[in-house]
Amino acid sequence: MGLLRYTLNRFLQAIPVMFGIAVITFLLVNSMPGNPVDVMLAEQDASPELIQAIEERYGLDEPLHIQFLNYIGFSWFLAQIGFPGFADAPPGLLQGDLGLSMYYERPVSDLMLTRLPPTLLLMMSAFAFALVTAIPLGVLAATRRNQPADHVSRIVALIGVSTPSFWIGIMLIILFSVQLGWLPSGRLVYPWRDPSHYGYGSTLELYYQTVRHLILPMIALGTLQMATIMRVERSSMIESLQKEYVKLARAYGVSERKILRKHAFRPSQLPVVTLVGLNLTSAIGGAVLIEMVFSINGMGRLLIQSIQTHDYQLVLGTTVVIGFVFVIGVIITDIAYAYIDPRVSYGEGS
Amino acid sequence: MSDTILEVTDLKTQFYTERGVVRAVDGVSFDVKQGEIVGLVGESGAGKSVTTSSVLRLIEEPGEVVGGEVDYMGRTIVGFEDTGEELVPRDEMLTEAQMRDQIRGNEIAIIFQDPMESLNPVYTVGGQVKEFIELNRDLSGEEAKEEAIEMLRRVGIPEAAERYGDYPHEFSGGMRQRVLIAMALGCRPNLIIADEPTTALDVTVEGQILELVNDLQAEFGTSFIWVTHDMGVVAEICDRVNVMYLGQIVEQGPVDEIFHDTQHPYTEALLNSIPRPDRTVDDLEPIEGTMPSARSPPSGCRFHPRCPDAREPCREIEPAFEQVAETADGAAHRASCLKHEEVGYWEAEPLEVEVEK
Hints:
The complex is a heterodimer. By secondary structure, chain A is an all-alpha fold.
């Protein structure tokens, strides 16, 4: 019960934060140098009528505050209740409409729906890879403290945190795609598509190809995460293993294995959860680079393209959505935290 | 009633630090008989906790038990033999697995000093009690849970069944200490080592816990080693007392003898430093100075630099730990002080006590 209410509360609390993100992004995008209409017309000598027609089409002829109300979707509400002056206001963010991309001539939300899944797939697999490797390594290093296994994993972690992910990506491509020819060098195969789309005979083959295509970008993006998680896991386990309650378990004849697996492990996951939660969101930045290196048509590439083409609505849309993903990531972290640590108050009775 | 269950002989435990070897326990001998509460008293750093951890072989790196014998009901917990060059563990010494499966928890249980840190914050209180009971007794999970609730109830936790699923942070310090006692008693051990279990509690709670232990001890017949620095607690519950100073036992005897026929100046000093209602703070006689480091203990009698009765020989001669007084029931009353030896103590000049304040 408590956890459910807590979850609901956290989402309610996130609403003003998301609103803030929308406001700030809107203002920042509007203060970008260069006029989107000029870029769109590619320096042709367009007639004032044409310029005005384009501005009208994208709602750029309105004053800034009206543009904002349109963008958020307030105007649409005002139009619904018949507020004078907002008669034909378009739906906005609140209605799930992010406007029209100038470059693609398609609704931004449509683009988002095709571009967000690959990015999420990439990030989820990168974190799965990072967690699956980092947690056992961290525990191992903690139990073999100051022994060779510990030193090796610490050196690997140090290299991992200090090597840029795009460089790792390029090196992986050179080694495994170009030299050895084992794995494809770019693009993803989406498991949610029909196998025939790629010319595969079965769903099994589709999944197999998905995995093959994911391995290199996953490692490239996940290495930094693996290294940071491992370091935190190690120090957190070392701390737990010296706690009084671990000594007590030992004094009651609990085996070392069980102490590791149960008594020391769970309490030491709190800092790891925090770290993963924060990194999940900051890894979006890393994903942008990896998508470029591996030619993956995800959110990151979309964002970069939109900036290059001055695609006003698209820049706004991608930035806001990434901001929302960030907030949701933080909320999930908080919930995971409350789930693991009973001391985190659910905010009841306050 | 007088069967000895635990016999510790000349136990030595050392810690290897960068600044030298710390002889935390340096030749400690005592025993525990069935059904009695034996006190282990001394200032912080005297080696009390290291002694009890050594008995359970729970000393961790960089520490090590380097000598002596610990015999528990015919089983060798610690035992060495001299090969001529070095001391090696004897064959009959219990293996680590035997210690874990046969001794820790089911024969000898322990209650730690800090109830706030001794329970795992992410598991329920009841679950932790149940886990240890299930592990150390031949009970199914369901039976262990019932037993855990029953023990929680017995140690005075109200609505034990409802509180079974609560987490440690929902319990007060005193309640947590009761949980730890329930944990220890629930495993039905023969001997419980209570390592300053009431030190972190306030005095009223301490009183309740001591009363509880007295009742439960009478009921279950469990023996206790009660580690404390508080002579008041000793008077309250102990049958026999061992007074420790700097890794050694300096006086040992039945509790009445220790209080009324004190034989060692250190014990005397401990007794004089207890606040009492009939004395003001000015009348208190704290022991001057602080205990020296166990890395380089003083020569002769280890207490001589702080001893109000120290005389010339105390600096050179290490006193033997011997029977010093007759007791009514023939129980041993031993002390290590040169006053009781023929070494010219009484003829010598008193030492000027140089105390660092």
